[in-house]
Amino acid sequence: CTSCRVEEATWRCLHCFGRPTYCTLCCRKQHERNPFHRVEKWTNNLYYSPAWLAEAGVVLQLGHGGRECPSHRQYTSGDSWEDEDDWTSDEEDDNDVEATAAAHSRSADGSRPAAATYTGNQTAMVIVDTTGIHRIPVWWCGCEGAPSDEMQLLDMALYPASHRRVKSCFTFRVLDDFLLDNLECKTSALNFYSKLRRTTNSTFPDQVPNRYQELLRVSRQWGHMKDMMRHGFGYPGRARPGPGDLTFFCAACPQPGVNLPPEWKEDENQLIYTRGFMMDGNFSAEHLKMRRPANDVAISDGTGFMVGEGRYKAHLKLAKEVKSKSSCNNHKAVNLANADRHKLEATGIGATACPRHGCFLPHAVVDFQKGERQMNMDYSFSQALGRNMENIQRVILLYDINCQYGVHLRQRFTESPYLHMPRRLEIVQGIGLFHVHGHQDACFMRYSPTFIPGAGLVDGEILETLWSSLNKVSGSTRGMATSHRKEVLNRHMNDWNWKKMINIVPALRKKYTANLPLMEDVTTSYNAMVASADPEMIQAWTVQMEEAQRKRLTDVKAMDVFDIRTDRAPSRADIQLSLTDKETQHGLQRGTIAWLSQGIKVQEAQVSLAAHVRSLPKSPTTEQKIDLLNRRKRLQTRVDAHEGKKARYIVIEDNDEDDNEKDVDDDLGEEWDAVEPDDVFWAAPAQASGNAIRLAERVAITLPSTLGHARCEALNIQQLAARELKLREGQANDTLHQIRICLGQKSFLFRTSIRSARSQHNKTRAWGDVNAVDRTLQHHARVYSKARKAMVSLGAPEALLNHYKVLRQEDLKVSTAVADPNMRGQRATTMAWFWTMDIRGDAEGQAWMEEFYRINWIKAKSRYDRVREEHDLLKHEILWTNIFFVHQSEAWINRMRECLSDDLAGHRAFAGKQADMFKALADEASALHKFTMNGQ
Which of 308, 322, 480, 880 falls 20 to 30 Å from 255 in CA-CA distance? Predict the structure, then answer.
């Protein structure tokens, strides 16, 4: 024995340091305070086999801090040890003698202690701990005035699984471990308990008591009590939590009465106190209908992030259901808002979060009954507006479909008694930088955060990162009881906010230091632009910007002045829409125009992929080869989809020899490459028969232009050819417009970046921007050439071909006539033909260039303003974070002072611990605030 050094060691502890060996007496003494260690016993003089501390005589002593009570009474469950069936298989048949015998034989593997250890009416209690599932005898304190049995268990960090007749307990340690495992590893209760059963008996885990249902119930109670403690409930004057009271929220968002200085309302720059909100829906967090909803018991309804049931259901019952189609692009969130799924109680959830720091808003997460309806998101937004918003007059609301959602927002709030919004609140609507590019072009200027004063450098997409974490637990919550699911989601959202809160200072420090060089670069570029521009034009553009920002609150179309205002020729989409409307009038099948447009798009994709192939080195890396194979696979899928429909629109006899006269497309825009193509990568791999495999980018797409004018007449598809010719005109208009934009952007970069660059670093960056524009320019040149050749093949009239001239390499050069038409010596210099072609009123190249400079200046000015705002916002957010932590620390100090009586000693200790924690966070924020105030 490593303890007494006298008796023979027959026990080995697996959890004591060094795995020491003990005699029976020493083993019992050493584990009176560690009754949940796992031990092994020397067996047959050959090996150590699993055993139990109860066999060594270890007993749980209650009521005296683990010491033996002189008047102790033994625990009895009312059932003898031999009658206890918890240790047999969950699927065991009581009449199956062989199965019963086999189960008893497995006791040798340590699944349960031997029955002979206990005599009389003494039984053992099931204790679930991180080390396994134990059966240990319990001695209660029998002294006069002893606490109740439940309190004796709680005093020893044991949580009873029931309250009438305690037969099982969970250690505080295992409950904390399960909650943390669930938060960090997304472990479900079933998997966690299965792990404990295997820890107890890896060979026969089915012989271990099944306390899974008890774990579900107890963990819910335990989690709720922990939340009540962490948020100061149970203290004098704080008995019952209200809506959203059991949550953490953002420390850096402006909250009057919490983290703003007393004089904040006198600050001239009220823009800095704008509150930001971002809304989004998540359809992964669905929930099945309960079979027996009457059995559902809510421990806390509405105290977390999920809204309370009562008022929310009353709002939905009263709210008007609006069924509308998207007037922007084909947004699923709008068009599928009323989609119903019969077996689901909730099809998903909608939430509101702060867009700058990514914290969920308390009591602002709602369930969807169908799709992402406005009535659901209205309630979420209303609850968010009620959270620490006193005297804040301006908010920025970011939502993926704000162009549709915000149209009648105030009207819906006015009509519902369950929705509340401050009367004079100014709401600026925006769309995240990723989703806004899926909208119509006009939505970018109207809703992009880049053009919203006070937004700083926010992307408006942060909720997507929150969903990615929450979705990992959505699978386990899908079949839970309604209230249990909400509690689990609340716990995970609260944990997300907690991690955001304790890491907010490092996050702000990282943002602040990263923004300093960015602000320097943007300021240098903006000042150079101002110095090279006409002051009168800048003044006019500034007035124009300010006027648009003032009007956007009542008419968001006022922001259209931020876009190019020069008239454009009809695009391919415009022509496709017009032709589709008249499809049946001209005897064409439905879908003909869409099929032609699809083929044109596939050709554009072929041109793009072929250019990518030619840009690859002669010896590409493995990653480049894999990427190319994936691209070709996706393109081939599109080619097959188009070719699979051609029989509907072009009828070609099987014996027609001219059908395959052109099955390889050689016109892929090589003449516009900046470098010579690599022949190595153009070579297609050979088949066994020796025939070359046609690559996806080289397959000829079946279209009238591919067949040629004469062939179309022979096949009697002149109408089809005429429709393609109209689409090709739109394609040419689109590409010429993009070419003009690229050349204008390129000339703008030469004038404002290349010429003004004073360092090699700035020159390198500027030329990198120019090269990026060049690549885009070459792509549009390839597509235009493809479109014009298709016109020729379709037999376009001479007048049309004179309008859309052949594009040459020299036409794409940025001459001084484009960059500065008023420069000395430019009187005899001519511009490329597409600058002066008839575009709805004979627009001149000079007007185009003025528009380019105006738009580029507006974008540069907006970027400059947002970066400056970001700098100011970060400095204020660091201050607000410091005040927030000080506020929390003082609140806990006040609670500590209210707990002076001895029976509240535990309350006082916990409050002091919390106060010190928030003070440490405040000290960290204070140090960062001093750093920023010193101009560093």
Answer: 308
CA–CA separation, 287 vs 341, rounded Å? 11
pLDDT (tens digit per residue) in 81-97: 333 444 433 333 433 33
Q: In this structure, are residues 1 and 14 in contact, taking their beta carbons and an 8 Å threshold?
A: no
Q: Can you read off the two tokens belonging to residue 314?
A: 């009353």
768 vs 138, higher pLDDT = 138
**Coil, helix or strand at residue 171:** strand
Residue type, 531: A
Distance from C-alpha of 408 to C-alpha of 425, rounded to nearest angstrom: 15
DSSP characters for 786-854?
HHHHHHHHTT--HHHHHHSPPP-GGGGS--HHHH-TTSTT-TT----GGGSS-SSS---HHHHHHHHHH
Contact 707, 661 (CB under 8 A): no
DSSP summary character for residue 556: G
Record the pTM: 0.75
Max CA distance (Å), the chain: 117
pLDDT digits (tens, 9 = 90+) for 578-606: 777 676 666 677 788 888 889 999 999 99
pLDDT digits (tens, 9 = 90+) for 810-854: 878 765 444 444 444 433 345 577 765 543 333 344 566 677 778
Backbone angles phi, psi at 850, to 5 degrees: -65, -40
Please give the Cα distance from 923 to 929 (Å, whole number). 10
> What's the token pair of residue 484?
């249990």
Asked if residue 757 has pLDDT above 70, the reply is no
Could you report how far apart the first and last alpha carbons of the chain are, in Å? 64
Strand, coil or helix: 238 = strand
Interval 525-583: pLDDT, tens: 788 778 767 788 889 889 999 999 999 988 999 998 887 765 556 666 777 777 776 76
pLDDT of residue 693: 56
DSSP 283-313: SSS-EEPPS-GGG---SSSSSSSBPPHHHHH
Angle between helix 718-749 and helix 760-793 axes, rounded to 10 deg: 160
Q: Classify the C-alpha dihedral 237-242-247-253 as positive or negative.
A: negative
The Cα 891–Cα 290 span in angstroms is: 41
| Amino acid letter for position 900 | L
Q: Could you tell me the pLDDT band of residue 748, with boundaries at 50, 70 and 90?
A: low
Which residues, 6 or more positions from 562, have their beta carbon under 8 angstroms from its beta carbon? 445, 451, 545, 548, 855, 858, 859, 862
